[in-house]
Amino acid sequence: MTDALFIAGWAHPARVLEPLARRLRVGESVFLSAAEAMALERLPEARVVVGHSLGGLLALKGLPEACERLVLLAATARFCTANDYPCGVPEKTLRLMMRQLERAPQAVLERFFRNVRFPEPAPPPPPVREPIEILLAGLETLRRTDLRERLPSLRQPVLLLHGTQDRIIPHAAAKRLLDLLANARLETLPDAGHALFAEPALHRVATAAAAFLRAPA
Fold this sequence. Notes:
Blueprint: E1 2-7, H1 18-24, E2 29-32, H2 34-39, E3 46-52, H3 54-61, E4 69-73, H4 91-103, H5 105-117, H6 132-144, E5 158-163, H7 171-180, E6 184-189, H8 201-214
Helix pairs in contact: 1-8, 4-5, 4-6
């Protein structure tokens, strides 16, 4: 068993969460991309689990039994909207993105990373490295996963961190997630977007997460 498990979001490498891990000083850590996490039958056992976006959804879906504390950055219980769930992305929008990804992957990723980094300027996106079928599998997981019925049974303390300017997963999704979890609290980051793993949001995220992990059980 490791001290901490970090799972990155869609189209991001596992190392994107390393700066946060260094600030949290949680000991021996395992870092996974979302694609790597989806390929596993079970997530590695860890006392602390940190997930960003799709990584947060995967953490909630397959939470290790040893997990004592869970930190979710810009996460959600369900990505797509439904008749009883308005705080997501319309499924037709996600399906369109999947079709465009097959035709022009670099253009799709450029647009995606601009939205991830908003309201900050987006650096040039890296070239497409993951196979397109792996990226599509991640989007399909987002399309079909709905954890709303499962989440009330989770009893671990959970810290939710979400920016008010998130263009990928709206802040309203965090409020719904808070209502579904038995032992959770929400830290709203005014003016922050989806990239909570990077500055300028990183300092606030690390400070809140460190305090949560140090607090008595």
